[in-house]
Amino acid sequence: MKVALGVTGGIAAYKAAELVRLLQDRGIRVQVVMTRAAQEFVRPLTFAALSGEKVITDLFGAGAEEPNIDSAVEHIAVAQAIDALVVAPATADVIAKLAHGEANDFLTTLFLATTAPVVIAPAMNVNMWDNAATQANIQTLKARGVVIVEPDSGYLACGMVGAGRLAANETIVLAVLKALKAEQDLAGETVLVTAGPTREPIDPVRYIGNRSSGKMGYALAEAALRRGAKVILVSGPTSLKPPSSADVIQVQTAQQMRDAVMTHFDGATIVIKAAAVADFTVRTAANEKIKRKGPMTLELEPTTDILAELGAKKGSRIVVGFAAETTDVLANARKKLESKSLDAIVLNDVSQPGIGFDSERNAVTILTHAGAETVPETSKWEVAHRVLDAVLKVKLERRRLQQSR
Ligand code: PMT
To answer: CB–CB of 164/170 below 8 Å?
Structure first.
């Protein structure tokens, strides 16, 4: 999903930087559009760095010697590509322009050109907010279906006290999610996700690892956040940027992952173990770098099976495992579902090319005690949502059974 975030020229413009992050944490891509006045408060570079996208500052392409056809029609392309337009903070000036259909810069033109839902979060001096002209403009926009996130009351940058302070970013995010019809069906849940590989040290410079990139687990964490859950992400070493709204615990070894998971298990209502945990660790890692001389033997011992431990003490929690298999895939996955007392297991046939380890894509079969559902090759983001759908189905079924007793 993608939203355009229009930032206009008020002192609250700096707060839009955090808004970019919060929207991204919900898995939403953000295209920032700044008015000329907004650029007096915050540099476009700040938003470009945060959003990872070029910031649009001009109707005809900023800095271009000659306006070209691409920049001249960019507002139409953006208007068609977005799922929502958010204006935060919105000044009295831009609210007036939007209410009267003016189209003399990128943001106002985009507003007229898009058919996506629009969310506006005003911020201004209390008297400007209370002014009959502003209130009439707000009513006009509301009557046309624009969602207004009412400003908060309190101390304002101008020194006055009253309504006009930009609403809390979390409130704006909720309004955006509602406009996007992004269901908050995991609100109230705490989802503990494990992701990535573990590393078992051989000596201070070498380790036993695996090909997991963490992408599947991070997609699950982001999807759960987007659906309203609190997320605890226990991550092995990856190069991925964790979602900033998650509580992130970085670990290296299987033992550290076990300890982190156990520490947070009590507070979790749903546990999803996408991590590729080492099955063996080196019995005694060397304290110094091992010199290369002759053949050598490493003595390995099994690690704790974290998932089996969780299954045994899960109580009312829903526990979901992953199974990376190459042979007898269905039978092996089902065996893990039963033997580890899981509610669901996500079978990854990692003998298939182009999916699974270190790929943007995946194809899985989600096994529960009620049956199996195949998710053909798609993005890990989509797989994550299908896994969460399955979790909710299990929860619903459990509730139905309890009520029928
Ligand atoms: O990280 P990516 O590059 O995105 O790749 C995704 C993935 C392929 C790693 C992921 O989709 C996946 O299949 N993860 C599970 C990998 C794995 O370790 O499978 P397994 O069949 O060996 O283990 C079964 C389950 O037991 C897993 O949930 C695992 O987290 C858990 N386990 C394993 C060993 C151990 N000591 N403790 C555990 O809890």
So the answer is: no
